[in-house]
């Protein structure tokens, strides 16, 4: 078995581990919701007895603005433990698979769409695990791991090509700089999308949306407040936006080296620009009266849709210079 | 979502500086040019956050068609094909500028309005910010307990010691570059306060980012006016000189001066192409070895795809390559009518290359045109001839023959890679099929109809070189880096205010402390804790008059 084949096998292993983790995260969220409902019933019964005291307590809570620490139920969250363990194991396999892929190809492992999904999901999962070390954001697990699973699955099933060296246009140190930062930005924006999507869902449920009223959506009650989700999403998006700005600038410098112009409105450049503008609009929306909160969160959703389209659609539908999927043979440049 | 009113909004960091300006006419920074009220209203709208937001969204939307429709500057052939295939809708799209989106009036309108809005918004903010930077931190609020983060403690240390301890921890290690700006005014007799503020750099970064974007736009426009770009096809063993006339295509900005071309010549010594050995033949390496002759003398250089060559204040890029079969054609009278390499343009990954050999200079009779393909590794089958590999393992020329008038003499520019068939007739075999020549290297074949002979003497390669000079590049890089730096500062600098009030009650000092941040700030509590801890650490020290220098 060659290094490349071994890498693919490890990636399959990682995908399997993530699948288990995904289920476990979903179970955890459902349990959490059940616990939450129980707590709320208790709290309400207490509140009836001491109405005045609870009102005072309530105002204190508002004034102190609790930091975004999601509720931890009184029970041990066994499903979450399993999910974190399998995610960590999956990440180990994922890292090993990615490193071997790079060794097999004799270059950095991010030069075609398969490798992009491989490394992009790696960054998303790593970001998630790093965030988990600093505070309890395990509630994001099902979405982040779910997206990573989809990315790996698509990569293995649709974008896979054997490990090989790259064409002259990609033989540059910019491949290391530009593409790696682009992938990290994509991974971060994935996590912030997860937070904003949850924020929107929770906000709708809190507002009494009939579509989200059923008990299947009860896990949303277990999440931190929409305000905290908003703050979390913003922090990650801010980092992602800076990295994306760097990606676009580094891309322009590489284009200046390789194609004799720093900007040529190639489809990939167009969509990178669109991504940048949408997230810039998000940052403005947050500070515009009447646009913060829910409306701003929609910008993250739209922005992430453009990120995904930039990664998949542009490579598959348009003919541009960034045709690096390796799935079709381009004309010699 | 807006459960709480925003805790504090420093001037200049208001959500909308103009909304704030309405409340406080003193900070109105609109140009006072005596405009009519409606114009002022339009200006105010244009420079509002809401309109900036709309314009940003609009910019994202209007950029998209450029990726959907073929664009003339990038790919004129596809535009022509699109117009041919869509005769009803195509001309309308063309009229509306959909084939050159980024130069269209509507795209330009959006970004010009956006930049006007940006300037109109950021210049007043800059003024406000410059004032804020010079101003002292705001006075200590009366009720510190109402702040989102607050502490209270008592200490036996003197008020001066408390104030000094707080100041030391707030200023940090570098006195010249303090973390907080600190003032310690006396409120009323016996009540000392400390008010401190940090994060001025946040707004500085914000202003820097936006001004850098303006600089970027100006640099790009300047570059457009001053740049030049020339393309030349150079065959192995031959060269070109850096002069407008020597390029196959040459375009330059409106402010370009042809005298600014730095003279040099470049000769292509050798071009090497490497491909994978499998049937897909993916390119692996392209290297052009060249000799440059300029003011410094003659020196050997290499040009690769990602490694342009610097020559004569310009960069020379390797943009394409192919084969240029070297042919010699004698006319019916046996005189040499044509001799030299003819570039054939590759059509696919296997370098099936298309080309035309035009022979106008015949001694007598019809002019000759040879149209066809070069196959680097030819395979002849029942379906026809094709190439299976891009390297010249079994090269073959497959040509059909035309005779008549090439149309070169009437002065109309022609595409050298296409035969203008209007004055030509194709030479046919006796069976009525087009007469086809299959030529191997070194071979001499007779042209049909007694038109003469063709000798294929060699197969040099050619490279397509792009030579470009854009004096704005360092500026663009500089502004881009400034924008990135400003962005980082404006997004990641925390803005915090910290206050202390020291009152004496029964011989002990009651210290109330509070902190406030703009937006969510995870480090705010820790910041306040540091200050409070420094004050609390004073307690075991009973010497109240430890400091002899008066604060401030």
Describe the structure.
- The complex is a heterodimer of chains A (333) and B (552).
- Chain A is 72% helix and 0% strand.
- Chain A has ten helices and no strands.
- Chain A has helices at 3-49, 51-64, 78-105, 113-134, 141-159, 173-206, 226-258, 267-286, 294-311, 313-317.
- The longest helix of chain A is centred in the first third of the chain and has 47 residues, at 3-49.
- Chain A is globular.
- Chain A starts with a helix and ends in a 16-residue tail after the last helix.
- Residues 46-74 and 328-333 of chain A have low confidence and may be disordered.
- In chain B, the strands form six sheets. In chain B, strands 14, 15, 16, 19, 20 and 21 form a six-stranded antiparallel β-sheet that branches.
- Chain B contains eleven helices and 26 strands.
- In chain B, strand 14 and strand 15 (353-359) form a beta hairpin.
- At the A-B interface, helix 2, helix 7 and helix 8 of A face helix 3, helix 4, strand 8, strand 11 and helix 10 of B.
Task: Describe the protein's topology.
The complex is a heterodimer of chains A (333) and B (552).
Chain A: H1 3-49, H2 51-64, H3 78-105, H4 113-134, H5 141-159, H6 173-206, H7 226-258, H8 267-286, H9 294-311, H10 313-317
Chain B: H1 17-23, H2 37-46, H3 49-63, H4 65-68, H5 76-85, H6 90-95, H7 105-134, E1 149-155, H8 159-171, E2 181-183, E3 192-198, H9 200-226, E4 228-235, E5 239-241, E6 249-252, E7 265-275, E8 283-294, E9 297-304, E10 309-311, E11 314-323, E12 326-331, E13 336-341, E14 345-346, E15 353-359, E16 367-375, E17 378-381, E18 384-387, E19 396-404, E20 424-426, E21 436-439, E22 444-447, E23 452-458, E24 461-469, H10 473-492, E25 496-505, E26 508-517, H11 524-536
Antiparallel strand pairs in B: 1-26, 2-3, 3-25, 4-6, 4-24, 5-7, 7-8, 8-9, 10-11, 11-24, 12-13, 12-23, 14-15, 15-16, 16-19, 17-18, 19-20, 19-21, 22-23, 25-26
